[in-house]
Amino acid sequence: MPTLIPAPTRITAAGNKPKLIDEFVGRVNNSEPRLSVARMQSPSGWVEPGQTPEFDEYTVVLRGELTVTHRAGRIQVGAGQGVFCRAGEWVQYSTPHPEGAEYIAVCLPAFSPGTVHRDA
Predict the structure, then answer these.
(1) Taking CA atoms, which of 5, 49, 88, 103 is between 20 and 30 Å from 71?
(2) 21-116 classified as CATH 3.40.50.300
């Protein structure tokens, strides 16, 4: 039988500016360890610390533009595009676009502070 997810849980984000994270599926909202699904809303100029996560991350940008910096360069991901970042690869997310960005992130297994491994 399908299970309704009545609302997401707001999670505190890392970075230099306030970013909204609403987790629909994951360790926080419904105790799901297999994957997490969250809507992100990042303001213009937001930068997250670099990270080397233990999970794969699939991201689909709904509005604005997301920059994904990696060891070999940068990828600009615009509205209607997606990006896949593999577990164990160093990445850094930011939203330099004037309108920021709104995007959906799916992590497999589910995101957790203990497995993201952010830079000091």
Answers:
(1) 103
(2) no
Query: Within 13 Å of residue 101, how many CA atoms lie on the same side as its CB?
Result: 27
Give tens-digit pLDDT for 41-88.
999 999 999 999 999 999 999 999 999 999 999 999 999 999 999 999
Comparing CA positions, the residue from 14, 1, 6, 33 lying closest to residue 111 is 33
pLDDT in tens, 101-112: 999 999 999 999
Structure tokens, 47: 């930068």
C-alpha dihedral sign at 120, 108, 12, 29: negative
What CA–CA distance (Å, rounded) separates 8 from 39? 9
- Written as six digits, the tokens of 114 are 């203990």
Side chain identity at residue 47, one-letter code: V
User: What amino acid occupies position 2?
Assistant: P
